[in-house]
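Lab notes, practical 5.
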Amino acid sequence: KNPEALKIFWKALREGLKGSGLWGSKRYPLELWEWETMQDEDVCEDCLQRASWPPMDIADWMKEGLPRTPEAETECGQDCRCRLVPYKLTKV
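Output from the prediction step:
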């Protein structure tokens, strides 16, 4: 075991979660997340499309790729300004 490598790993994980909007957010009874854009003219087509997807749990988003990660394969890549936000269920 390498304690320094583990420390670096956890720091990178925390920073990635913060950048994705997942760190320190409130928990909701059903944890679904939505892709949120900056809603301006600089949003790429890939992110616009993801913003139209239905809310998903975090495991599904991780399969598709989180904002600012290479796994997302968005046109804007690591320059992405999007984030995942909790989906709030509204009562009818």
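Observations recorded by the TA: The longest strand covers residues 33-36. The chain has three helices and two strands.
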